[in-house]
Amino acid sequence: MKVLVTGGTGFVGSHVVRNLLASGQSVRLLVRDVDRAMAMGTSAGWVMEASDPVPSLEFVQGDITDPVSVSAAIADCDALVHAAAGTPIRTRSVDEMFAVNVGGVKHVVTSALAQGVERIVVVSSITAIFNADASKVTSDAPPARSNMPYGKSKVEAEHYLRALQDEGAPIAIVYPGGVIGPDDPGFSDTCMALKHRIENGFRIFGQGGMQHVDVRDLAAFIDSLVTQGGTGRFLLPGVYLTWTELADTIERVSGCTLQRIPAQGWKLRMMGRLIDVVRKFRTVDAPISAETMRYATLWPNIANTDELHARNLLLRDPADTFADTLRWMVRAGHLEPQRCPQLQ
Protein backbone atom coordinates (compact mmCIF):
# COMPACT_ATOMS: atom_id res chain seq x y z
CA MET A 1 0.00 0.00 0.00
CA LYS A 2 1.26 3.46 -0.89
CA VAL A 3 0.34 6.17 1.62
CA LEU A 4 0.60 9.92 1.16
CA VAL A 5 1.40 11.71 4.43
CA THR A 6 1.07 15.47 4.74
CA GLY A 7 2.83 17.08 7.70
CA GLY A 8 5.29 14.19 7.61
CA THR A 9 8.16 16.33 8.88
CA GLY A 10 6.09 17.46 11.87
CA PHE A 11 5.64 15.81 15.26
CA VAL A 12 2.66 13.53 14.65
CA GLY A 13 3.38 13.02 10.96
CA SER A 14 7.00 11.92 11.45
CA HIS A 15 5.93 9.25 13.95
CA VAL A 16 3.17 8.10 11.59
CA VAL A 17 5.76 7.73 8.83
CA ARG A 18 7.93 5.64 11.13
CA ASN A 19 5.01 3.34 11.98
CA LEU A 20 3.88 2.96 8.38
CA LEU A 21 7.37 2.06 7.21
CA ALA A 22 7.71 -0.44 10.04
CA SER A 23 4.43 -2.09 9.02
CA GLY A 24 5.71 -2.51 5.46
CA GLN A 25 3.90 0.32 3.69
CA SER A 26 5.35 2.59 1.01
CA VAL A 27 5.19 6.23 2.06
CA ARG A 28 5.18 9.43 0.03
CA LEU A 29 5.61 12.79 1.73
CA LEU A 30 4.40 16.12 0.41
CA VAL A 31 7.04 18.58 1.65
CA ARG A 32 8.07 22.15 0.96
CA ASP A 33 11.82 21.41 1.13
CA VAL A 34 12.94 17.98 -0.08
CA ASP A 35 16.57 18.32 1.07
CA ARG A 36 15.50 19.31 4.58
CA ALA A 37 12.98 16.47 4.71
CA MET A 38 15.57 13.91 3.60
CA ALA A 39 18.04 15.13 6.22
CA MET A 40 15.35 14.95 8.88
CA GLY A 41 14.37 11.47 7.71
CA THR A 42 17.92 10.25 8.10
CA SER A 43 18.14 11.55 11.67
CA ALA A 44 14.68 10.13 12.43
CA GLY A 45 15.76 6.65 11.37
CA TRP A 46 13.45 6.34 8.38
CA VAL A 47 14.59 3.59 6.02
CA MET A 48 15.72 5.06 2.72
CA GLU A 49 17.60 2.62 0.52
CA ALA A 50 18.66 4.27 -2.74
CA SER A 51 19.31 0.85 -4.25
CA ASP A 52 15.70 -0.30 -3.87
CA PRO A 53 13.98 -0.63 -7.27
CA VAL A 54 10.75 0.53 -5.57
CA PRO A 55 11.67 2.98 -2.77
CA SER A 56 9.70 2.61 0.43
CA LEU A 57 9.92 6.36 1.03
CA GLU A 58 9.70 9.18 -1.49
CA PHE A 59 9.28 12.95 -1.41
CA VAL A 60 7.21 15.28 -3.57
CA GLN A 61 7.85 18.99 -3.35
CA GLY A 62 4.79 21.15 -2.85
CA ASP A 63 2.41 22.65 -0.34
CA ILE A 64 -1.06 21.71 0.90
CA THR A 65 -2.25 25.23 0.03
CA ASP A 66 -1.40 24.55 -3.64
CA PRO A 67 -3.99 22.22 -5.23
CA VAL A 68 -1.75 21.44 -8.22
CA SER A 69 1.10 20.02 -6.13
CA VAL A 70 -1.42 18.23 -3.91
CA SER A 71 -2.96 16.50 -6.92
CA ALA A 72 0.45 15.40 -8.15
CA ALA A 73 1.39 14.06 -4.73
CA ILE A 74 -1.77 11.97 -4.30
CA ALA A 75 -1.47 10.31 -7.74
CA ASP A 76 -1.41 6.47 -7.52
CA CYS A 77 -1.65 6.45 -3.71
CA ASP A 78 -3.96 4.02 -1.92
CA ALA A 79 -4.33 5.92 1.34
CA LEU A 80 -3.89 9.38 2.82
CA VAL A 81 -2.89 10.61 6.27
CA HIS A 82 -3.43 14.35 6.58
CA ALA A 83 -1.42 15.50 9.61
CA ALA A 84 -0.42 19.00 8.50
CA ALA A 85 -1.86 21.87 10.55
CA GLY A 86 -1.20 25.37 11.82
CA THR A 87 -1.34 26.26 15.53
CA PRO A 88 -2.07 29.54 17.34
CA ILE A 89 1.57 30.03 18.33
CA ARG A 90 3.32 28.84 15.16
CA THR A 91 1.13 30.48 12.51
CA ARG A 92 2.06 34.00 11.47
CA SER A 93 -1.42 35.31 10.68
CA VAL A 94 -5.10 34.42 10.78
CA ASP A 95 -5.16 34.24 6.97
CA GLU A 96 -2.31 31.74 6.99
CA MET A 97 -4.04 29.65 9.66
CA PHE A 98 -7.21 29.39 7.59
CA ALA A 99 -5.23 28.70 4.41
CA VAL A 100 -3.58 25.73 6.13
CA ASN A 101 -6.30 24.43 8.44
CA VAL A 102 -9.24 24.90 6.09
CA GLY A 103 -7.93 25.34 2.56
CA GLY A 104 -5.27 22.68 3.05
CA VAL A 105 -7.79 20.13 4.30
CA LYS A 106 -10.11 20.83 1.39
CA HIS A 107 -7.36 20.58 -1.23
CA VAL A 108 -5.91 17.35 0.12
CA VAL A 109 -9.15 15.49 0.84
CA THR A 110 -10.93 16.65 -2.32
CA SER A 111 -8.00 15.54 -4.46
CA ALA A 112 -7.80 12.17 -2.68
CA LEU A 113 -11.50 11.48 -3.22
CA ALA A 114 -11.31 12.58 -6.86
CA GLN A 115 -8.49 10.09 -7.45
CA GLY A 116 -10.30 7.21 -5.76
CA VAL A 117 -8.32 6.96 -2.51
CA GLU A 118 -10.27 4.60 -0.27
CA ARG A 119 -8.63 5.17 3.12
CA ILE A 120 -8.38 8.75 4.35
CA VAL A 121 -7.30 9.62 7.89
CA VAL A 122 -7.42 13.26 9.00
CA VAL A 123 -5.76 14.33 12.24
CA SER A 124 -8.00 16.97 13.78
CA SER A 125 -8.08 18.15 17.40
CA ILE A 126 -10.36 17.90 20.42
CA THR A 127 -10.62 21.67 20.07
CA ALA A 128 -12.96 21.14 17.10
CA ILE A 129 -15.56 19.65 19.47
CA PHE A 130 -14.32 21.12 22.75
CA ASN A 131 -16.67 21.60 25.68
CA ALA A 132 -15.81 22.12 29.34
CA ASP A 133 -18.48 19.48 30.10
CA ALA A 134 -16.82 16.11 29.39
CA SER A 135 -20.18 14.37 28.86
CA LYS A 136 -20.72 16.57 25.81
CA VAL A 137 -17.39 15.72 24.16
CA THR A 138 -18.17 12.58 22.16
CA SER A 139 -17.76 11.38 18.59
CA ASP A 140 -21.34 12.51 17.97
CA ALA A 141 -20.81 15.97 19.45
CA PRO A 142 -21.49 18.85 17.07
CA PRO A 143 -18.59 21.09 16.07
CA ALA A 144 -17.88 23.58 18.83
CA ARG A 145 -18.54 27.29 18.55
CA SER A 146 -15.39 29.35 18.90
CA ASN A 147 -14.62 33.04 18.85
CA MET A 148 -10.90 32.38 18.38
CA PRO A 149 -9.09 31.94 15.05
CA TYR A 150 -7.60 28.48 15.62
CA GLY A 151 -10.88 27.09 16.93
CA LYS A 152 -12.81 28.66 14.06
CA SER A 153 -10.45 27.15 11.49
CA LYS A 154 -10.73 23.66 12.99
CA VAL A 155 -14.53 23.93 13.17
CA GLU A 156 -14.83 25.08 9.55
CA ALA A 157 -12.72 22.12 8.43
CA GLU A 158 -14.85 19.88 10.64
CA HIS A 159 -18.07 20.93 8.92
CA TYR A 160 -16.49 20.18 5.53
CA LEU A 161 -15.28 16.72 6.57
CA ARG A 162 -18.54 15.73 8.22
CA ALA A 163 -20.52 16.69 5.13
CA LEU A 164 -18.33 14.31 3.12
CA GLN A 165 -18.73 11.57 5.74
CA ASP A 166 -22.51 11.99 5.53
CA GLU A 167 -22.22 11.36 1.79
CA GLY A 168 -20.36 8.11 2.47
CA ALA A 169 -16.78 9.28 1.88
CA PRO A 170 -14.17 6.87 3.40
CA ILE A 171 -12.86 9.33 5.99
CA ALA A 172 -11.65 8.71 9.54
CA ILE A 173 -11.18 11.76 11.77
CA VAL A 174 -8.93 11.45 14.83
CA TYR A 175 -9.17 13.94 17.69
CA PRO A 176 -6.05 13.90 19.92
CA GLY A 177 -5.58 15.85 23.14
CA GLY A 178 -2.22 17.37 24.05
CA VAL A 179 0.33 15.39 22.02
CA ILE A 180 3.60 14.75 23.86
CA GLY A 181 6.55 12.42 23.45
CA PRO A 182 10.14 12.14 22.25
CA ASP A 183 11.61 12.91 18.83
CA ASP A 184 9.74 16.10 17.97
CA PRO A 185 11.37 17.61 14.84
CA GLY A 186 9.80 21.05 15.22
CA PHE A 187 9.66 21.25 19.03
CA SER A 188 5.89 21.66 19.04
CA ASP A 189 3.71 23.67 21.39
CA THR A 190 3.19 20.92 23.98
CA CYS A 191 6.90 20.20 24.31
CA MET A 192 7.59 23.92 24.46
CA ALA A 193 5.06 24.23 27.29
CA LEU A 194 6.78 21.42 29.23
CA LYS A 195 10.16 23.15 28.87
CA HIS A 196 8.61 26.47 29.94
CA ARG A 197 7.14 24.91 33.10
CA ILE A 198 10.42 23.35 34.14
CA GLU A 199 12.44 26.51 33.55
CA ASN A 200 9.95 29.19 34.61
CA GLY A 201 7.60 27.60 37.11
CA PHE A 202 4.56 25.34 36.98
CA ARG A 203 1.22 27.10 37.38
CA ILE A 204 -1.15 24.96 39.42
CA PHE A 205 -4.87 25.58 39.10
CA GLY A 206 -7.10 24.74 42.04
CA GLN A 207 -9.26 22.49 39.89
CA GLY A 208 -9.00 20.68 36.59
CA GLY A 209 -6.16 19.12 34.71
CA MET A 210 -5.04 18.11 31.24
CA GLN A 211 -4.93 15.06 29.00
CA HIS A 212 -1.82 14.07 27.10
CA VAL A 213 -1.53 11.36 24.49
CA ASP A 214 1.88 9.87 23.71
CA VAL A 215 2.71 10.62 20.08
CA ARG A 216 3.79 6.99 19.63
CA ASP A 217 0.37 5.75 20.76
CA LEU A 218 -1.38 8.23 18.48
CA ALA A 219 0.79 7.14 15.54
CA ALA A 220 0.05 3.47 16.24
CA PHE A 221 -3.69 4.18 16.19
CA ILE A 222 -3.44 6.12 12.91
CA ASP A 223 -1.35 3.32 11.42
CA SER A 224 -4.08 0.83 12.36
CA LEU A 225 -6.72 2.94 10.60
CA VAL A 226 -4.60 2.93 7.45
CA THR A 227 -3.60 -0.72 7.45
CA GLN A 228 -6.75 -2.29 8.94
CA GLY A 229 -9.30 0.25 7.73
CA GLY A 230 -11.92 2.21 9.62
CA THR A 231 -14.09 5.26 9.09
CA GLY A 232 -15.87 7.55 11.50
CA ARG A 233 -14.75 9.82 14.32
CA PHE A 234 -12.33 8.74 17.04
CA LEU A 235 -11.44 10.62 20.24
CA LEU A 236 -7.94 10.07 21.58
CA PRO A 237 -7.39 12.76 24.23
CA GLY A 238 -5.06 10.53 26.24
CA VAL A 239 -4.50 10.08 29.96
CA TYR A 240 -5.98 12.67 32.32
CA LEU A 241 -3.92 14.06 35.19
CA THR A 242 -4.81 16.91 37.51
CA TRP A 243 -2.29 19.74 37.42
CA THR A 244 -0.86 18.60 40.77
CA GLU A 245 -0.59 15.00 39.52
CA LEU A 246 1.16 16.22 36.38
CA ALA A 247 3.67 18.26 38.40
CA ASP A 248 4.25 15.27 40.71
CA THR A 249 4.88 13.01 37.69
CA ILE A 250 7.38 15.39 36.12
CA GLU A 251 9.29 15.73 39.39
CA ARG A 252 9.29 11.98 40.02
CA VAL A 253 10.66 10.94 36.63
CA SER A 254 13.13 13.81 36.19
CA GLY A 255 14.42 14.46 39.69
CA CYS A 256 13.78 18.19 39.28
CA THR A 257 12.05 20.41 41.80
CA LEU A 258 9.39 22.53 40.18
CA GLN A 259 8.51 25.99 41.33
CA ARG A 260 4.77 25.55 41.86
CA ILE A 261 2.81 28.74 41.31
CA PRO A 262 -0.85 28.92 42.38
CA ALA A 263 -2.85 30.31 39.47
CA GLN A 264 -6.37 31.37 38.58
CA GLY A 265 -7.76 30.37 35.20
CA TRP A 266 -9.36 33.70 34.35
CA LYS A 267 -6.09 35.55 34.89
CA LEU A 268 -4.20 33.22 32.54
CA ARG A 269 -6.90 33.52 29.90
CA MET A 270 -6.56 37.30 30.12
CA MET A 271 -2.77 37.00 29.92
CA GLY A 272 -3.18 34.89 26.78
CA ARG A 273 -5.25 37.61 25.12
CA LEU A 274 -2.63 40.24 25.94
CA ILE A 275 0.20 38.10 24.60
CA ASP A 276 -1.76 37.54 21.38
CA VAL A 277 -1.83 41.31 20.90
CA VAL A 278 1.93 41.60 21.55
CA ARG A 279 2.61 38.68 19.20
CA LYS A 280 1.19 40.74 16.30
CA PHE A 281 4.17 43.09 16.61
CA ARG A 282 7.05 40.88 17.76
CA THR A 283 8.05 37.30 18.50
CA VAL A 284 7.05 36.04 21.95
CA ASP A 285 9.03 33.03 23.18
CA ALA A 286 6.30 31.58 25.39
CA PRO A 287 3.73 28.81 24.78
CA ILE A 288 0.87 31.10 25.76
CA SER A 289 -2.08 32.33 23.73
CA ALA A 290 -5.74 33.03 24.44
CA GLU A 291 -6.69 29.67 22.96
CA THR A 292 -4.04 27.56 24.68
CA MET A 293 -4.94 29.13 28.01
CA ARG A 294 -8.64 28.46 27.45
CA TYR A 295 -8.02 24.76 26.93
CA ALA A 296 -5.43 24.55 29.71
CA THR A 297 -7.76 26.05 32.30
CA LEU A 298 -11.08 24.49 31.29
CA TRP A 299 -10.14 20.98 30.07
CA PRO A 300 -12.39 18.15 31.38
CA ASN A 301 -11.65 14.40 31.63
CA ILE A 302 -12.72 13.12 28.19
CA ALA A 303 -13.18 9.42 27.39
CA ASN A 304 -10.91 7.76 24.82
CA THR A 305 -12.38 5.80 21.91
CA ASP A 306 -13.30 2.14 22.52
CA GLU A 307 -11.47 1.39 19.27
CA LEU A 308 -8.22 1.33 21.22
CA HIS A 309 -9.24 -1.94 22.86
CA ALA A 310 -10.86 -3.24 19.70
CA ARG A 311 -7.51 -2.84 17.92
CA ASN A 312 -5.48 -4.24 20.85
CA LEU A 313 -3.81 -0.92 21.51
CA LEU A 314 -2.97 0.59 24.90
CA LEU A 315 -2.01 4.05 26.10
CA ARG A 316 1.35 4.34 27.84
CA ASP A 317 1.72 5.22 31.50
CA PRO A 318 2.25 9.02 31.68
CA ALA A 319 5.39 8.42 33.77
CA ASP A 320 6.97 6.56 30.84
CA THR A 321 5.82 9.19 28.36
CA PHE A 322 7.24 12.13 30.33
CA ALA A 323 10.47 10.31 31.21
CA ASP A 324 11.09 9.52 27.52
CA THR A 325 10.13 13.05 26.48
CA LEU A 326 12.40 14.77 28.99
CA ARG A 327 15.27 12.37 28.28
CA TRP A 328 14.99 13.26 24.61
CA MET A 329 14.74 17.00 25.36
CA VAL A 330 18.01 16.84 27.31
CA ARG A 331 19.71 14.77 24.61
CA ALA A 332 18.52 17.17 21.89
CA GLY A 333 19.71 20.24 23.79
CA HIS A 334 16.28 21.66 24.60
CA LEU A 335 16.88 21.30 28.36
CA GLU A 336 20.05 21.62 30.39
CA PRO A 337 21.04 18.24 31.89
CA GLN A 338 21.02 19.60 35.44
CA ARG A 339 17.31 20.32 35.07
CA CYS A 340 16.64 16.56 34.99
CA PRO A 341 19.29 14.95 37.25
CA GLN A 342 17.49 11.59 37.43
CA LEU A 343 17.56 11.16 33.65
CA GLN A 344 21.30 11.61 33.14
Series of H and E elements = EHEHEHEHEHEEHEEHEEHEHHHH
Instruction: Determine Rg (CA atoms, Å).
Output: 20 Å
Distance between the termini: 41 Å
- Under CATH, the topology of the domain at 2-181 and 212-238 and 300-316 is which? Rossmann fold
Count of distinct strands:
12
Number of helices: 12
Poorly predicted tracts of residues: none
Describe this structure in words.
By secondary structure, this protein is α/β, with parallel strands linked by helices. The chain has a domain at 2-181 and 212-238 and 300-316: Rossmann fold. It is built from twelve helices and twelve strands. β4, α4 and β5 (119-123) form a beta-alpha-beta unit. α3 packs parallel to α4, α8 (243-254) crosses α12 (318-331) and α9 (265-279) runs antiparallel to α10. The radius of gyration is 20 Å and the shape is globular.
How is the topology of this model organized?
Blueprint: E1 2-6, H1 11-22, E2 26-31, H2 34-44, E3 57-61, H3 67-74, E4 79-82, H4 94-114, E5 119-123, H5 149-166, E6 171-176, E7 178-180, H6 189-200, E8 202-205, E9 209-214, H7 215-228, E10 232-236, E11 239-242, H8 243-254, E12 260-263, H9 265-279, H10 290-298, H11 307-310, H12 318-331
Parallel strand pairs: 1-2, 1-4, 2-3, 4-5, 5-6, 6-10, 7-9, 8-12
Antiparallel strand pairs: 9-11
Helix pairs in contact: 1-7, 3-4, 4-5, 8-12, 9-10
